[in-house]
Amino acid sequence: MKTKINFDINKLVRPNILKLKPYQSAREQMSDKNAILLDANENPFPVEYNRYPDPLQRELKMKIAEQKKTPVENIFLGNGSDEIIDLLIRAFCIPGKDSILINVPTYGMYEVCANMNDVKVIKVELDDEFQIDIPTVLKKSQQAKIIFICSPNNPTANLIQQDLIVDLLENFNRIVVVDEAYIDFANDAGFLSKIDNYPNLVVLQTFSKARAMAGIRLGMAFMNAEIVNILTKIKYPYNISLLNQKAALKALEDDSVSSEIKAILQQRDWLISELQKLKIVEKIWPSDANFLLVQFKNHKQVFDFLKKEGIIVRDRSNEPNCNGCLRITVGKSLENLMLITILKHLDKRISEYDFFEIQKSY
Distance from first CA to last CA of the chain, Å, rounded? Predict the structure, then answer.
């Protein structure tokens, strides 16, 4: 059953975008793979990459549609999810006038893309459990065109409760973006199946995380066909290279992804159990992703010590409600073992120092 919200995309899109006549390749209308190509001023001598890639990524979208059980017309592909985030803001937000809303702490590119487009960012802090404060969001979102929700959230690693997102979808008659970059690591179906129910819903997924293809920069977006058409209108003509399309098609044929996810989740559980033994660890937040948010005593000392030992983690201590927190990605078993070994060494040093200081006070 479809939502009853009053959603009219023509009233949301920037007027100049509605009027825009897009650049179109002649090949967008071409279906004959054996056609003689004399339209794009390419070098005709046949090497593997002498032709422009399919601007609509039709073969790749068909494969994604098959795996995701989603119609092709509901799929948009971007040069990473970051391009899709930027295009959504450009399509719907008038520079210097409109706003987006984000729930902080969250993925930093929502704010960066808004700033690049001279779009105001309304920030609402997540609650103590890193869940959405619905009354505050609905109150502050009255001037916003887009709400961005990251679930599982980065850097907090938790799923946002489904009923909270549904509440927003049913009470906010503009665009709600649910960024599911880490959904493959969560015991949750996500919102992909709900696109037909909510015309204002955009679901982002990616090849970068579970698919282990961060290097090809390929983001997927699922939404109603009207929004797909708007984004297609304003994207660069050949935004996904032929190299990347081929790599993505190959990745979709790889059956090892489920075993890799299982291994990562097992390592995540092992990391949690080992980190809990350390005195320097104050709290480990529950994780539905392939990383952990960990609160340390003297987190700066821990961060610097790990860096000196050649292990790079992410300092998230300046984010709201993340005081003293480092974000740690789950690595391969040997990498995780090295991390814990080094942290145990630091933990022992700090504990011995504390004992010495206590002894001095008597």
Answer: 72
pLDDT of residue 12: 94
Residue 7: inside a domain, yes or no? Answer: no
User: Looking at the 3D structure of the chain, how many domains does it have?
Assistant: 2
Q: Which stretches in the chain have pLDDT values below 50?
A: 1, 355-356, 358-362
C-alpha–C-alpha distance, residues 207 and 233, integer Å: 23
H helix or E strand, kind and range, residue 130: none
- Do 114 and 243 fall within a single domain? yes
Asked whether 141 and 101 are in contact (CB, 8 A), the reply is yes
Judge if the upstream peptide bond of residue 105 is cis by omega within 30 degrees of 0.
yes
Query: At residue 250, what are phi and psi to the nearest 5 degrees?
Result: -65, -40
Cβ neighbours around 131 below 10 Å, total: 16
Q: What is the pTM of this model?
A: 0.93
Do 323 and 241 lie in one domain? The reply is: no
> Contact 317/102 with Cβ under 8 angstroms?
no
For 273-329, the DSSP string reads HHHTT-TTEEEE---SSSEEEEEETTHHHHHHHHHHTT---EE-TTSTT-TTEEEEE
Give the pairing type, strands 281-284 and 291-296: antiparallel
Residue 306 structural domain: 257-361
Residues 159 and 268 in one domain: no
- Look up the CATH number of the domain holding residue 24: 3.40.640.10
